[in-house]
């Protein structure tokens, strides 16, 4: 299996006990809070307040860099509880955000500010596969690891989704969702055939492409601003009995920006034009503070064929790798290999992983392949600043586009509020505090900014974007609107927002409607 062990993984082992006191709400705020509490109590909605002994652990952010204090947390067990949570919040004038896996990089499921109502979906944890249709009904609080294992055990089925088992379906499936089968099966959100969702007026509806099509469109890309999905209905695929897992390490090439840039440039040429490239190959470049630099991925098909033809064509013209691996893995082993050291099965309650980090993305365009100049500038920065850094960082460069990518099917272009159907690479640059706990030094953020800028400033006409699931809380609402959605999609979303949530009940700092484009 390929080496994922990195400083970043160690982070997942760290857990923190928060000594963070709940923010004080005085005067009108506490009146508001009382009103909310009374309404929730009358309607029998399970609620946790700051007087509860498990309050601190319940509200602990995944990203401890950004801890916010909600005014209350509801723990609904029925759609009616979700609906009552929303209508009580409206009556009290409190903003709402649901939490699924809680892995928002900006802690937006906590509201993204103090004083919101968090609707925690942890009790919506069922996974139920219909074997004749292959459609699975999944509760809005299910984590990806449990989802992958559940559908495999119920019927040898699989779905495309991200790697980290603790991530929740609620954020992940509604803001893209990229994983090692996405070039073959599409993004996670492309598998959504229907959603049961509570809207801002408390209505509980079933949204599909033909029933509430605007809601169906908006939720697939921007659900945080439009509703609370209690159940997802997803079209699964037959899980392959095995996949080919491959890696090639080029750590010794990381001494020269020119050599490293040429490797990625060659990979780009292969990905976009080789006759050996199709949807069955997944590719990612990985780097970290320890000087790791590798190409890795999966191939759906025969190992020997891959090894002799696809892999050798991929590596042709590159320096000889320090080492490489090509091996069959069963489906569940393959999922576990990329799980960054986490077990696939996550606890249904009491999940307690935390990190302290800042992350930025760069989405590049099919029409603007990366230039040698941009890659050389990026690697020069990595070599000069990255290899001597005193804190953990890593970079993932995942191939979203390239030949035959099912993410970029033209028919998908305007079908969902996720609008990047012409992406080639998606960079994710992450910097963490040394022990993965607070405090977080500003120099780490500057370093991550620097990784992005080294690339983008060296290709001024690159037309770069950002990936909504790698939420960047440092963006202004207008920057977020432009980089995540673009003006056509954003303006369509603003119209829908005005129609279904005119008071902006579903709010976070980058919610739809916070900017004018
Ligand atoms: C370690 C790690 C690895 C990752 N790996 C990948 C990867 O491989 N590929 C990838 O694409 N992404 C990856 N991500 C990013 C991940 O997809 C996003 O952070 C995702 O949005 C988290 O979803 P969540 O439900 O856990 O987060 P949450 O914080 O619960 O939710 C995120 C946002 O969605 C809203 N939301 C949550 N549930 C619902 C719901 N049911 N209905 C409506 N809105 C909802 C929240 O209010 C919030 O605004 C990774 C993140 C981490 C931390
Ligand atoms: C809980 O919230 C109330 C009202 O906002 C506040 O007065 C009180 O100090 C908080 N309690 C704790 C333990 O933080
Ligand atoms: C599976 O879906 C089909 C078609 O919608 C439906 O007729 C059938 O009742 C479902 N099966 C189960 C077990 O729910
Ligand atoms: C592959 O080479 C890298 C250095 O280039 C090294 O860190 C890693 O341990 C090697 N892996 C194996 C399996 O030998
Ligand atoms: C991908 O692999 C499948 C078998 O796993 C094969 O049927 C198909 O022809 C391959 N290529 C494409 C483009 O789908």
CATH architecture of the domain at 4-120: 2-Layer Sandwich
Decide which structural class fits the backbone. alpha+beta
Which regions are unreliable across 5 or more consecutive residues at pLDDT < 50?
A: 1-26
Bound molecules: flavin-adenine dinucleotide, 2-acetamido-2-deoxy-beta-D-glucopyranose
Q: Give me the CATH fold name of the domain at 4-120.
A: Uridine Diphospho-n-acetylenolpyruvylglucosamine Reductase, domain 2
Shape: globular
- Rg over alpha carbons: 22 Å
For the terminal residues, how far apart are their CA atoms? Answer: 46 Å
**Strand coverage percent:** 15-25%
- Helix count, per DSSP? 15
CATH level 1 name of the domain at 4-120: Alpha Beta
How do the strands line up in the largest sheet? Answer: 15-12-14-13-17-18-16
How would you describe the overall organization of this protein?
- This protein is α+β, with helices and mostly antiparallel strands and 517 residues long.
- The protein has a domain at 4-120: Uridine Diphospho-n-acetylenolpyruvylglucosamine Reductase, domain 2 (2-Layer Sandwich).
- It contains 15 helices and 18 strands.
- The protein has a seven-stranded antiparallel beta sheet.
- It starts with 6 loop residues before the first helix and ends in a 17-residue tail after the last helix.
- One 2-acetamido-2-deoxy-beta-D-glucopyranose is lined by residues 130, 132-133.
């Amino acid at each position: 299996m390929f080496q994922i062990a990195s400083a970043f993984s160690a982070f997942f082992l760290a857990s923190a006990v928060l000594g963070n006191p709940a923010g004080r709400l005085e005067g009108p705020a506490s009146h508001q809070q009382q009103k909310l509490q009374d309404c929730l109590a009358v309607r029998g909605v399970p609620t946790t307040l700051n007087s509860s002994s498990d309050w601190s652990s319940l509200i602990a952010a995944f990203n401890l860099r950004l801890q916010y204090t909600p005014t209350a947390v509801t723990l609904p067990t029925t759609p009616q509880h979700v609906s009552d949570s929303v209508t009580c919040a409206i009556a009290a004038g409190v903003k709402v955000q649901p939490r699924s896996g809680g892995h928002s990089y900006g802690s937006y499921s906590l509201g993204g500010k103090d004083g919101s109502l968090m609707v925690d979906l942890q009790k919506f944890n069922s996974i139920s596969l219909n074997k004749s249709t292959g459609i699975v009904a999944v509760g809005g609080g299910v984590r990806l690891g449990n989802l992958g294992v559940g559908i495999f055990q119920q019927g040898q089925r699989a779905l495309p989704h991200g790697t980290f088992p603790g991530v929740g379906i609620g954020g992940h499936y509604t803001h893209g969702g990229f994983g090692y089968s996405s070039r073959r099966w599409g993004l996670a959100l492309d598998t959504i055939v229907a959603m049961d969702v509570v809207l801002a007026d408390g209505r509980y509806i079933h949204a599909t492409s033909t029933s509430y099509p605007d809601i169906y469109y908006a939720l697939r890309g921007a659900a945080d601003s439009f509703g609370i999905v209690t159940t997802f209905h997803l079209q699964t695929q037959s899980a392959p009995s095995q996949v080919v897992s491959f890696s090639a390490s080029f750590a010794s090439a990381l001494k020269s920006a020119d050599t490293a840039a040429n490797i990625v440039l060659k990979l780009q040429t292969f990905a976009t034009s080789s006759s050996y490239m199709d949807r069955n190959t997944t590719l990612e470049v990985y780097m970290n503070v320890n000087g790791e630099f590798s190409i890795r991925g999966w191939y759906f098909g025969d190992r020997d064929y891959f090894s002799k033809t696809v892999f050798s064509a991929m590596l042709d013209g590159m320096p000889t790798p320090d080492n490489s691996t090509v091996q069959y893995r069963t489906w569940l082993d393959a999922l576990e290999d990329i799980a960054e050291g986490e077990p696939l099965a996550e606890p249904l309650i009491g999940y307690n992983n935390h990190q302290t980090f800042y992350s930025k993305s760069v989405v590049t365009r099919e029409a603007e392949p990366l230039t040698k100049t941009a890659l050389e500038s990026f690697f020069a920065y990595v070599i000069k600043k990255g290899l001597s850094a005193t804190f953990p960082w890593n970079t993932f460069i995942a191939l979203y586009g390239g030949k035959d990518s099912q993410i970029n099917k033209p028919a998908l272009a305007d079908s969902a509020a996720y609008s990047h159907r012409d992406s080639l690479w998606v960079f994710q640059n992450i910097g963490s505090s040394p022990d993965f706990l607070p405090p977080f030094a500003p120099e780490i953020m500057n370093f991550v900014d620097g990784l992005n800028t080294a690339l983008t400033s060296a290709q001024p006409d690159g037309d770069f974007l950002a990936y909504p699931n790698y939420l960047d809380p440092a963006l202004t609402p207008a920057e977020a609107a432009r980089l995540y959605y673009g003006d056509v999609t954003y303006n369509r979303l603003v119209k829908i927002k005005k129609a279904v949530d005119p008071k902006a009940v579903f709010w976070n700092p980058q919610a739809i409607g916070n900017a004018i484009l």
